[in-house]
TrEMBL record:
Signal sequence extent: none
CDD domains named in the record: NAT_SF
Keyword entries, A-Z: Transferase
GO molecular function: acyltransferase activity, transferring groups other than amino-acyl groups
Phylogenetic lineage: Bacteria, Pseudomonadati, Pseudomonadota, Gammaproteobacteria, Lysobacterales
Xref: InterPro entries: Acyl_CoA_acyltransferase, GNAT_dom
Name assigned to this protein: GNAT family N-acetyltransferase
Record organism: Dyella monticola
Domain N-acetyltransferase positions: 11-148
Amino acid sequence: MQSASMSEPLIIVTDAPDAADLAAVREQLSRFNFSATGIDDQRALALLVKDPKTGTVLGGLTGRTSRGVLFVDMFFLAETLRGTGLGSKLLRMAEEEGVRRGCHHGVLYTNTFQAPSFYKKHGWREFGEIPSDPSGTSRLFFMKELVS
């Protein structure tokens, strides 16, 4: 029960959150997780592919590592770079960096219209599916045991 002097909390719904507000939520969650686990090892991970002449980003892989898990959040390569082996190299490099950081497993999701066969080819195992839009497509969840 709230005390008589405490106001109802304000809830804001936005598609443009302030970076400081996001950092505050992240910091509070990190403190909670540390108090529960004694582990404070979350680190961002980015492998960026850039044009050597212009420095323009042509794609890359972003994610994070935390408490023994590599999370792949985004993975994209320009169409001209697909099929060259560069995507396989990036994924392998991310997995290797995850292992260096103490990760035992990797987790990611993709869409049925993106690259599920690419991940399967690299030893990732599908463990879940959620129907999404447009009709007939799904988000597919993958995991992989990382070995050193």
